[in-house]
From TrEMBL:
Protein's recorded name: GNAT domain-containing protein
Pfam families noted in UniProt: Acetyltransf_3
PROSITE patterns for the chain: GNAT
GO molecular function, one term: acyltransferase activity, transferring groups other than amino-acyl groups
Taxonomic classification: Eukaryota, Fungi, Dikarya, Ascomycota, Pezizomycotina
Domain of life: Eukaryota
PANTHER family: GNAT FAMILY, PUTATIVE (AFU_ORTHOLOGUE AFUA_3G00765)-RELATED-RELATED, N-ACETYLTRANSFERASE DOMAIN-CONTAINING PROTEIN
Domain N-acetyltransferase, first and last residues per copy: 54-242
Annotated TM spans: none
Organism, scientific name: Microdochium trichocladiopsis
Amino acid sequence: MTGTKQIRSARGEVLPQEVAAKLNTIPWYNLFTSLPDRPLPPSSQRAHIKTARLVLRPLDLSDLEAFHSLRTQPEVMAKTFRPRVDRDMDETRTLLQSLQPPNDGNSWRFGVFLASTGELIGDGGVYNFDDLWRTGWPELEFMLRKEHWGQGYGKELIPALMEAWFNLPRSGVRKHTLHPNAIGELEPGDELPDNLAIIFDASIDAARKIVDGLTDPKPDYIADWEQIDWREGKEFMEITLAGWLVANPHGLDPYRTETGYLSDRTDVEDNEKE
Ligand SMILES: CC(C)(COP(=O)(O)OP(=O)(O)OC[C@H]1O[C@@H](n2cnc3c(N)ncnc32)[C@H](O)[C@@H]1OP(=O)(O)O)[C@@H](O)C(=O)NCCC(=O)NCCS
């Protein structure tokens, strides 16, 4: 392990290697749920999503300049998962290419366009369905150009994304590994509908208001918590995050298959990616 980054505690001291190693050994629990099938449908097959004033559609290479313009607004990027603007057009192009077939099976990401003008004003979705590192659940992310903040677009965007995510095809109930903090009173071997996590910098007041105000389905507020920041350029600082879990309103039953019942579900895990 020589040459790896030093791990520091919340107070800033360097942790001994064996203590740092233990931080990565919290056991996660196996429960049963039904997540969207992998790989996700190719972007060419994803239905466009319409709200009163917005059209959401997968981004393509022709969106490069508008996408770059969005991703170079410092106010927009400052509190996102990679909290800096794109370095140059090439960096945005590389990202956009990663969202095109055949590379798009682990991302479910939509450009947000004004229905009235066709202008690209944002981006939202599940950016990485393969790496469910934080809770075990996929996470919803979203951003809008700053000129369009405060006009209710976020309140249209977020429920529309949630509804479409919960309507993606799911085949069967499978074993899935979840962080103990994400399962409440449940125990290993229990079953639950799949959840979408919404976790962001606790200081983003507009996003908090939106998520707190949703009713159908109603997100379950987890907490505000402080942790070490792992994001680029912020490593080892402290950050306060706020988090919610939204349970699939369709429940688990629509996705049960014959092989999805408790009696034989242990056979299914070998086919799962995680
Ligand atoms: C978060 C974001 C998408 C919100 O979108 P938005 O379109 O500005 O939000 P809305 O206009 O729908 O407003 C939602 C609510 O927040 C309120 N609000 C808007 N801006 C606010 C602000 N700066 N402070 C406090 N409340 C605010 C609105 O009044 C509204 O509340 P109401 O329902 O009581 O009227 C947008 O601010 C953004 O893109 N931020 C940068 C990217 C980001 O941080 N994303 C979140 C992390 S994944």
